[in-house]
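Incident review: delayed structure delivery

Summary: a single-chain prediction request sat in the queue longer than the usual turnaround. Root cause was a stuck worker, restarted by the on-call engineer. No data loss occurred. The affected request and its eventual output are reproduced below so the record is complete for anyone auditing the incident later.

Affected input:
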Amino acid sequence: MNDNSMRLFEYRFGPSREWRILVAATRELREKAFRLVYDAYVREGYELRLGRESGLWCTIHHLHPETVIFLAEKEGRQAGSVALIPDTRLGLPTDHIFPEPLADLRETGRRLCEVSSLVVTEESWGIPPELAMHLYRLAHLASLHLLKRTDIVASVMAHHSDFYARILLFDEVSRAPRLSPKTGQQVCYAHLNLETMKERYKERYARARGRRNLYRWFFQNEDEPAILEWLRHSRVPMSREELYYFGTEKTNILASAGHDVIAVLEEDYRKAG
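Output delivered after worker restart:
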């Protein structure tokens, strides 16, 4: 695929292609995603420890240059978002809630990333599950092909844990929830081995029909080459100017993080070019 054909590709779906998903690769799009997540958490009644002054759900991990953020729109209206956070010297958000299983995975040489801030806004008829699945498929492709990771981890809302265990076939979903220090919600630890995912999905779903065939959804998608090319060209790391815009001007994240964390971020931004 050349540059011209890549520019023609858009990730769209729906009966009239009314849904569109973007890689949030500009300050404007990232800010829209952060605001969408914050607003969604407020509507859910979460006891938020972040974002009250800025109206943005933005953490130190969102400010890392390797973090990938997707923003979904429907007819020009923001409709959903998800962040894919790589394991770096900053660690992962889940380290603050479930440090033990992450330490075990790192000790065996696994390369981790975290699916975080997954929200889908409600339509007049209810929550659109198809949008969540599209966002999750993009997170899966990006984790494998952009970030080159072996495992996905997440802290998922306790009332969603059954979906991750029975439908998405995560290898492990903890039964004992813990309190998230940032949202005040009960969350469960979830872990997915990306290297064994394909075989498990094939065994469970290959004979299913229609939308129930999640093996075809994740591993036999004819648009995958075009999607991967679009991901590689659309992904633009957050700039150093954006780091200080979100971390200092809009929030006090960097001041709260301290000099050592800022030094790590500065070094990683230099490496990212």
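Verification: The domain at 3-257 is CATH 3.40.630.30 (Aminopeptidase).
Action items: add queue-age alerting; document worker restart procedure.
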